[in-house]
Design brief:
One of its GO terms (biological process) is double-strand break repair. This protein is of the alpha+beta class. Helix content is 57%, strand content 12%. The protein has 26 helices and 17 strands. Strands 7-11-12-3-13-14 form a 6-stranded mixed beta sheet, sandwiched between helices. The chain has a 5-stranded antiparallel beta sheet with strand order 2-1-4-5-6. The protein starts with a strand and ends in a 9-residue tail after the last strand.
């Protein structure tokens, strides 16, 4: 992937104009909350992906990148909101620049516009997970198993697995529903075939026995086999003679009788009783119809439980007590389960009614055909009307909802039934009036109609077989995919689990050196339990502290990223992710990042200057690879702790005789500067449990550390017999001592113990010497050539030298060995 050398931000989020040199190295951004740290995080994310995660996605309401990405003063000019990144691409050995504006976030300008470089940026864009906040850590550690599985699979680019699993289940369910319809068609085709042939079952032996009787009447050879291509009227064409009438009298009489029975069945007291029972059951459900409609919401409610962050409803953002929210949702789910069970019970009552209606349809349609094909045609509409209505009622009952429609479909006052019954009598009389067929004619009709029905049955059987094969295959594919995916995921999670365990032991080896963890995938969920000091496995939030949970989140994230990107994991943004980790484990975190991920550039933000010093002292972040914001202004953006800015502000306040404000500003800056001096020189500060170090703690420690360095450097020069070097160092030491003396003589002016009534007495002429004294003192901690702060070079615990960035200052602290003297 990439490392970032420089970022330039213009009119973006809370930043007006800011350039930060990251140098493709680990970099820290420090400052109190609200000073603009997140603006840099957002800019890095936007520059590389074209989006800002804190403005998009669930729970973001009306927020959007286009509307709220630009600085508030440029909100109507999104083209002015620009982020430009200068990057290195280790895999290509090239450098490149990418620039995006909020107006056209998906159209970055890439220089040079090389296909290989563009491919790298596209790869980075597909991996927005390079940016991690503490809010996102919770997704991996404290989320419900279903949500954790989704988030982890999304990070690993495996989220399509679950999408595919759901799609296969949908296909399987649809195939099963289709099979049920095909089964009905098969059974009705069998009924019609049996009716035409006068047999009780569709079996080869039974069918051939009946058919061969008729074939013998026509002097046709008997059929010995019934195969897929067998025609029971085979040989009939060669006999010639009169063609079969359109209405075969024998078969028509049988089917008219069957149709009459089916129609009369609708009007019987028994049928009316069954329909009435179903109506009563449906009516009883009406008061809970809303629950029946909402049955499909059970999945949504389950997801809501998974997404619940123990504070707000994931759908409407309403605040809830965790126990109350879960109780309400679970109660709704139980009500839906009860409603689903009741619906299933009533649907079983409805099923025979639907089967009867669906069976009525083909019978009546055949009667309509006979009515139409008579030598003197009859009206066929009475049959067609009832067939169509039977179709409609069956469909309504299959749909079940709305309940009023289903109840109406069971109305036994079906006037068209009587009209159809009356028309059956007319049709029966017309068929009865047809000439009686001879035995040979009857046999010919029998074989002709039987062949037609046999073909229809064969087609229905073929469709059913294909549907069953499809349903079976869909079910097997879904099951096989689930099993295979689970096995693959299990292997991945085992690898991630091992890395996670190793990382966590690295940062908590003092008290959890035998720590274990379990990542357990099952049915689209990912269980996550951790060992608690050998007392058993529990969810991370059960017993571990918030600091330990933060550490777990980081370790799991790093393990996932290592699996996902391997050597391509070269850039990550950690946005205040470890604010709860105690000081005792922060150095171990720094060591983990530096030792396990030496090729990864980490950009870390923190509001805690002590945490920043941990990063520097552990060599995770170089001394100059950090920026500290002191305040933020809506029109100017974040303000860094810069000498030129601070001294100019102090001078202006003094010029305006605003001494109290000038003293406060100077004190804040000197606390920041003295902390930096202590960090660079190894100044020893008395430990405070609240980590709130004041100027009285920091400045003496910094001065003492520099004084000790000069003393040791002079002793070292003497040990080597280098008198000229001794004189140079002594001159610097003398100047330093004078600056210290002058600053200490005026330090009371900014001491917090001064009473407010004394502040009011200070005047410009009183405070100007204070400013001059501390300006000079600050210069004593810097190289006069490059302006870099002097810092100590150590080997283990041994201080070997004190230097600056350009090496103009270079104090040797290694005296000549006594054996050489």
């Amino acid at each position: 992937m990439i490392t970032v050398e420089r970022i330039k931000i213009e009119d973006f989020r809370g930043i007006r104009n800011l350039t930060v040199d990251l140098g493709s190295a680990n970099f820290a951004v420090c400052g109190p909350n609200g000073t603009g740290k997140s603006g840099i995080v957002d800019a890095l994310e936007f520059g590389l992906t074209g989006t800002i995660s804190r403005l998009v996605g669930k729970g973001r309401g009306a927020l959007s990148v286009k509307e709220h990405g630009p600085h508030v003063n440029s909100r109507t000019h999104p083209e002015k909101a620009v982020v430009t990144l200068e990057v290195s691409i280790p895999s290509l050995g090239k450098k490149a620049t990418i620039s995006r504006n909020v107006k056209s976030p998906k159209a970055p300008k890439i220089t040079p516009d090389d296909p290989a470089i563009r491919a790298v940026f596209e790869h980075v864009q597909r991996h927005p997970e390079f940016s991690l906040s503490r809010r996102e850590i919770i997704k991996y550690v404290l989320a419900e198993p279903g949500v954790r599985a989704e988030e982890v699979q999304a990070l690993l680019q495996l989220d399509k697995l679950d999408t595919t699993r759901k799609l296969l289940l949908k296909i399987s369910n649809a195939a099963t529903r289709d099979l049920k319809a095909l089964e009905g068609e098969r059974d009705r085709a069998a009924t019609h075939l049996m009716s035409a042939l006068g047999i009780a079952e569709v079996k080869a032996a039974t069918l051939l026995a009946a058919v061969n009787v008729k074939r013998a009447t026509l002097d046709l050879p008997a059929l010995t086999k019934l195969e897929a291509t067998t025609s029971i009227r085979d040989g009939l064409e060669t006999q010639g003679g009169v063609s079969a009438p359109k209405v075969p009298k024998v078969q028509a009489k049988t089917e008219i009788a069957n149709g009459l029975t089916a129609l009369e069945a609708i009007k019987t007291p028994e049928t009316e009783a069954v329909w009435s029972e179903v109506v009563d059951a449906l009516t009883a459900l009406k008061e809970n119809e809303a629950k029946l409609v909402d049955i499909t919401r059970d999945g949504m409610l389950a997801t809501a439980l998974d997404l619940f962050d123990n504070e707000h409803c994931p759908v409407c953002e309403t605040a809830w007590e965790p126990t109350e929210f879960r109780a309400v949702v679970e109660t709704q789910r139980e009500q839906l389960k009860t409603a689903a069970a009741e619906r299933e019970r009533v649907e079983k009552l409805i099923e025979p009614v639907v089967v009867a209606l669906e069976g009525l349809r083909p019978m009546l349609r055949q009667l309509a055909v006979y009515a139409r094909d008579l030598p003197t045609p009859l009206a066929f509409e009475p049959f067609a009307v009832v067939a169509k209505e039977a179709d409609r009622r069956a469909e309504v009952l299959r749909n079940f909802l709305p309940l009023d429609d289903a109840i109406a479909a069971l109305d036994t006052d079906w006037a068209d039934i009587q009209a159809a019954l009356d028309h059956v009598s007319i049709l029966s009389a017309s068929v009865e009036a047809l000439p009686e067929p001879t035995d040979r004619d009857a046999a010919r009709d029998y074989l002709t109609v039987g062949q037609e029905r046999l073909e229809s049955w064969r087609q229905a059987m073929t469709k059913y077989a294909a549907g069953k094969a499809k349903a079976d295959a869909a079910a097997k594919v879904h099951a096989l995919y689930g099993t295979t995916a689970d096995k693959a995921l299990e292997a991945i999670y085992k690898e991630v689990e091992a890395e996670f365990r190793s990382y966590y032991r690295d940062i908590n080896g003092d008290d959890e050196s035998k720590f274990e963890a379990q990542l357990t995938p099952s049915l689209g969920k990912l269980g996550f339990e951790v060992d608690f000091y050998g007392k058993g496995f529990f969810p991370p939030g059960a017993y571990h502290s918030e600091g330990h949970q933060d550490g777990m989140g980081l370790c799991l994230y790093l393990a996932l990223m290592k699996h996902l990107l391997g050597d391509q994991f070269t850039f990550a943004v950690l946005d205040d992710v470890l604010m709860s980790v105690d000081a005792g484990h922060r150095r171990e975190v720094c060591t983990l990042l530096r030792a396990k991920f030496p090729k990864t550039q980490f950009v870390l933000t923190t509001h805690d200057p002590v945490w920043l010093n941990h990063m520097k002292s552990s060599k995770l972040v170089a001394g100059r690879s950090a920026v500290t914001f002191r305040k933020w202004h809506v029109d100017h953006g974040p303000q860094e702790w810069k000498q030129t800015d601070v001294w100019a502000e102090v001078d202006q306040l003094v010029a305006n005789n605003e001494i109290r404000a000038a003293a406060g500003q100077l004190r804040h800056y000197l606390e920041y500067a003295a902390a930096e001096w202590c960090a660079r020189l190894g100044g020893r500060v008395e430990y405070r449990s609240d980590a709130k170090y004041e100027l009285g703690d920091l400045l003496p420690a910094a001065i003492g550390a520099m004084n000790d360095l000069y003393k040791k450097a002079k002793t070292t020069a003497q040990s080597w017999g280098d008198n000229a070097r001794f004189d140079e160092i002594n001159a610097c030491h003398t100047a330093f001592t004078a600056a210290v003396s002058q600053s200490q003589s005026e330090q009371w002016e900014i001491n917090p113990a001064v009473h407010f009534n004394e502040w009011a007495n200070l005047q410009r002429q009183d405070f100007e010497p204070v400013v001059v004294a501390f300006k000079q003192l600050e210069r004593e901690f810097e190289c006069p050539a490059c302006g870099d702060l002097i810092y100590v070079v150590q080997s283990g615990k041994t201080k070997e030298a004190a230097r600056c960035g350009c090496a103009k200052v270079n104090l040797n602290l290694k005296p000549k060995p006594k054996l050489w003297q």
